[in-house]
Amino acid sequence: AIACFSEVLEYSKSRILFKQPIASRQAVQLKLADMARRITMAQLLSLQLGRLKDAGTMQPTQVSLAKWNNCRMAIDIAREARDILGGAGITTEHCPIRHALNLESVITYEGTETVHQLVVGREVTGINAF
Predict the structure, then answer these.
(1) What is the CATH number of the domain that holds 45?
(2) pLDDT tens digits for 36-90?
(3) Per-residue DSSP letters for 82-109?
(4) 96 pLDDT exceeds 90?
């Protein structure tokens, strides 16, 4: 997510459209701001999970929540970055398409979203739906 964000941020500052960088457009700035917010939240979640692990109080459900959230966030950021890149976003010249493809497999081998959702749902409701 960070690599995609960094690349698209620099691209948006250098890509000139109608005599202005596309970073000067509200739609692009809203997307970039949202990416920064989501990345920061995922980083804070990971930091807190690490602190809980160090303290010996981390629970398996918290791991599922972090994997579900952070993998989903990363693929969403890659897709959004690909969109900001426009036609160039589907070329391997830029990293978002490569990361998006890689993240499709990460979502599966880190445990499917459905499994993580069910783990969190069981914790929330106290009822096992597996």
Answers:
(1) 1.20.140.10
(2) 999 999 999 999 999 999 999 999 999 999 999 999 999 999 999 999 999 999 9
(3) HHHTGGGGGSTTSHHHHHHHHHHHHHHH
(4) yes
Q: Which of 73, 101, 97 is nearest to 86 (CA)?
A: 97
Give pTM, 2 decimals. Answer: 0.89
Residue 130 maps to a domain: no
- Distance (Å) of CA 55 to CA 13, 44, 83: 43, 16, 41
Domain tally, the chain:
1
Taking each helix axis as running N to C, give the angle between helix 26-55 and helix 60-84, from 0 to 180 degrees, rounded to the nearest 10.
160
- Could you tell me the sign of the dihedral formed by the alpha carbons of 73, 126, 110, 60, in that order? positive
Domain that holds residue 41: 2-125
* Active-site residue set: 110
- The three-class DSSP label of residue 124 is helix
Amino acid symbol at 24: S
Which tokens belong to 92? 């391997």
